[in-house]
Known about the structure:
Blueprint (H helix, E strand, L loop, with lengths): L1 E6 L13 H9 L7 H20 L4 H11 L18 H13 L19 H11 L3 H21 L10 H16 L3 H14 L14 H21 L15 H5 L6 E6 L24 H14 L5 E8 L1 H6 L16 H4 L3 H11 L10 H4 L2 H7 L2 E5 L1 H7 L11 E7 L4 E6 L14 H12 L5 H12 L18 H4 L9
Parallel strand pairs: 3-4
Antiparallel strand pairs: 1-2, 3-5, 5-6
InterPro entries: MmgE/PrpD_sf, MmgE/PrpD_sf_1, MmgE/PrpD_sf_2, MmgE_PrpD, MmgE_PrpD_C, MmgE_PrpD_N
Protein name: MmgE/PrpD family protein
Organism: Actinoallomurus acaciae
Amino acid sequence: MIEHQVRVHPSSARLPRAEQLAWKLAAVATDGGEPDAESAAMAVNRVIDNAAVAVASLTRRPVAVARAQALAHAATPGSAVFGADRRSSPEWAAWANGVAVRELDFHDTFLAADYSHPGDNIPPLLAVAQHTGRGGADLVRGIVAAYEIHVALVKGICLHAHRIDHVAHLSAATACGLGALLRLPTEVVYQAVQQAVHTTTATRQSRKGEISSWKAFAPAFAGKAAIEAVDRAMRGEGSPSPIYEGEDGFLAWMLDGPEAVYTVSLPEPGEARRAILETYTKEHSAEYQAQAFIDLARRMRDKVGPPERIREIVLHTSHHTHHVIGSGSGDPQKYDPAASRETLDHSVPYIFAVALEDGTWHHERSYAPERARRPETVALWRKVSTVEDADWTRRYHDPDPARRAFGGRAVITLEDGTVIEDELAVADAHPSGAHPFDRAGYTAKFETLTEGILAPDARDRFLAAAEQMASLDPAGLDALFPAVDTGAVDARLPKGLF
Length: 498
């Protein structure tokens, strides 16, 4: 790996393109190497994972809205849309499919200096592959390249400290993945990266307070913007340059300012792209930093006994977990029984309370309004708080993936003064966890989430195609969209503009 130092430069310095981060990202994407077997296999896993959560979300209102918008933008050859029998323009198909993938907060994650869901790169890549007649090998190459860039940016540049939403890294990664998919010149990808970053820099209010459905739309917007940026760059249009290092650019005014120096590590020319192997998916439909706490609650349940015996629960955890999904956020909505699903899946006090009561977690039942409003649940929920623990913060940022931890320690005090403690560093499904996800795990998740939605033959056709993804011809990519009863997923929606 090469460690690239990134800082602000005055316009008078005329920073050469080859020294700009956007160019270095584009150069990695256009290096021309093919993924190794492990990375290619993980790309297949993530396509299966995305399809599982997309199909499970098809009847949800935000997904139906995005689908209706996409279907108003037909194109030839166009791109497939989950839950539809017509094709749409690729940027709109990416929009609809991106919302479907993100709606349940149930696909893959990577946490480091910042947050990310690298699987959000896949819908725009798949849409463009279909529209441009690329095959499975091209798609795999694009996915692996996008993950490589996404992970590098998330490791090197923290957006959250400045309340910038993490989709700014996503759009850069998607532009790079599209460059690898289409084998575009480095110059074109360089311009597209800069356009994409410039147009997708937004605040984190989408994940703060009363969280709305925009949390699902935000990454889809970034993917759509990246496709449009690539299209403009292919037509010869330029960009705000240098987008990262410019004196009025991203680092200078959105992040740490003119004196800051960031380190972004990227592979050398010809080095294998293996960052996708550092990422991980979710066993439970909730913010990733709550995954280990769900498993910990299930493990502690028998020791604790009836929840009404509990006086207090304190979760000792990292800075990020405490401030983003814990009581350190200062968000009263995280304790509100009338809060939206999007808010509840970012409330570790709610999640721990329900997991402790139920001993399980379900992507719909655990968030049902009647579930959140149970008096006994509300009483327990309000006994849960989080505190930042310096050791858990250090472990969260450990440079060694094998030692990195995203969990914490639960201290439960009963009414009689008995204290019950336990801790869990990573979720059971994490690569370092008790039951790491493998291909069988991804397949089982797909089968569980699509039960009652997909016919068995449709499910089997999809899984067979996904297993052979790298060898699919352009027409074969259609099989990555399992057939559903479109009438069953149609929804009555207010009329929009389209």
